[in-house]
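Colleagues,

Please find the record for the two-part complex below.
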Amino acid sequence: MNTVLGSLQGGGSRKPRLPRPAALGMWPVLAVLLVIFVWPTVVIISRSVTDPPGAGLSNFHRVLTDPTVLRFGWNTVRTALIVTAATAVIGYGYAYAIYRAGPALRVLLLFCALLPFWTSLLVRSFAWTVILRDTGIVNWLLLRVDVVDHPVGLLRTPFAVTLGMTQILLPFVILPCYTAMMRFDRDLHLAARSLGARPSAAFWLVFFPVTRVGLVAGSILVLVLSLGYYITPVLLGGPGDQPIAVLIASQVTTQLDWGLAGSMAAVVTAVVLALLALGWRLVARAFLGEEVR
Amino acid sequence: MSGRRRWLSRLLWAVLVAPVVVCLLAPSLVIIPMSFSRSPVLSFPPSGFTLDWYQRLFTSSEWIASARNSATVAFAATVLSLLLGVPAGLALGLRDWRSKRLMMAFVITPMVIPTVVLAIGMYAVYARLGLVGMWGLAAAHAVIAVPFVVITTMAAARQLDPTLLLAARSLGALPWQVFLNVTLPSIARGVLSGAVFAFVTSWDEVVIALFLTDPTFKTLPVQMWNQLSQGVDPTVAALATTLLGLTTLLMVSVLATSRRPR
């Protein structure tokens, strides 16, 4: 009872300690995830050194030298970097437009940003195939205004993959940027202006540095997610534009080469976790509302 | 800033933002007219008007069965992730304890590990655990849905004043009474939105489902995926439009309830 009374008197700054193990609620999820999430992941990664028996590091040697793996890997990295850059620029600009808009337009722009977030990934990728195909709306418009005289091949190109993934991942940048902007103290802007800063200087020297956290957090998440994309590249890309995720799947389903699949999975997982560990503070603050200590 | 320059800068913003709005909405809107087109190939502009594709969709036993499978899996996955995620979200949101941030990172990881890696790992292991068919897929989807429930519950629990729980305890309520009468009502909205996210995540998931299902037990996204790789007919557009209508309805109702004044 002493601890209870003590914490009641202590006031709001520290959370009071309850007289039972505070982390009790974590145990079920930890136990279950250990069996149905950690175990499968560990098994698949350990196949990289055990399949075929006595493989050692030979599978990793293949990952680093096999031209097919390198080509798929390069596709993945290139697409991920372009998509991250595109979503960063467009997402920050769009969030700024929401921030500056009047109340009615703000709701509309937010709705437009959220609708794709809620629409099925498969449905959106399929919709892009309908838009970009030779008989789709884009080619219809181009033919109509006589820019081209026969359909331009847009589908099954790296461009289609980049466009589709950028659209699908854009909300992950827009939302944290917008949150960061809404928290921005407008007095800072007024102070900068009254001290003689021109609008552009006030933006780049005050507004942008303060709201950058949302941009960085969103971009880390986009980079991490785009490294594992599967559905969109398969539907929108050509045979030469496929990412590492597709190669991993085909090694298991058609080649039955679990060793190579496992080592590629290990590399991708390591990269993803490393990126996330680097940006964890920012991501946690932007997406989980955790305060940085 | 002079009136003219302000007007110009607004115009500039409109020119920059309009294409983004078009790109955000286009994929959702373009498939709607296609689903009513008479043409059996998905070509623009749509020709004529027909409900044939919808009739074909709603009378196909294959589509109906896979929709039912999807709903069952999503429901089971949602229940599982609530049972696991709500206590975890409460532990993370209500109290401070050692290595809390590490635990939070761990619970969030399934969201960022590439689904292909999860899929082949589960494909290799789940059969040995006896997790096959509906239960295997539900367990797999619970793994990727749990982070949503944990995050939304945690956010709601942070708003809850822990002294309220202590007050209830000191007034003689038993722990389970505190949970039912104080804790749960205060975090209900967070739990509900977590449940919606969990359901939608499972309902929409393709990659893991491709590995863990077989021809006798297919989910809707798997059926759609097979259809897309076989050559598309507008039935898929009709399905996509139906799904779009359902999600918009869901989104609007969630937004409407979250706006309700306290």
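Chain B touches chain A through 97 residues (CB under 8 Å).

Comments are welcome before we finalize the supplementary table.
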